[in-house]
Amino acid sequence: xxxxxxxxxxxxxxxxxxxxxxxxxxxxxxxxxxxxxxxxxxxxxxxxxxxxxxxxxxxxxxxxxxxxxxxxxxxxxxxxxxxxxxxxxxxxxxxxxxxxxxxxxxxxxxxxxxxxxxxxxxxxxxxxxxxxxxxxxxxxxxxxxxxxxxxxxxxxxxxxxxxxxxxxxxxxxxxxxxxxxxxxxxxxxxxxxxxxxx
Length: 198
Prior knowledge:
Helix content: 40-55%
Strand order of the largest sheet: 2-3-1-4-5
Distance between the termini: 11 Å
Structural class: alpha/beta
Number of helices: 9
Order of helices and strands: EHEHHHHEEHHHEH
Oligomer: single chain
């Protein structure tokens, strides 16, 4: 029997730490952000949609999307963000689920790393959801350092998602990433055992 497990969390909460570990253990992980970037490359399914909506102001000199410019425009207006999200989400969902179905032909367990898993209601397509949890103050500090954001920029991006505390109540399992890596990995190992024993 196959299983699809969603990995989610807040921005800069440590999802990539968990998914890198899962890949090292031989599991297939679909990275929603990577798929979106692929779809947004010149000629991709999302490229034309975004160009039609925003115009050439989101393009770099080489004609590819300027991700920094796109991010600034995307997060500058809640109404615009909702419109752009609606345009993109149908295309992204179709692509992610098609890739999942292909992998399940050959693998018993497939993971899907989806940052906006709950916000976009992917849980109905999954057997379990694992939430990578980090204290919000640590999350803010990590995001500012990682992306060189001001506190205002970081808070704006965090506010665009459900809070980690809200997500805790929706997830099937919590991976507490406040400790050191060995503790995080130990929690993942325990969850993997439960997947194969259930």
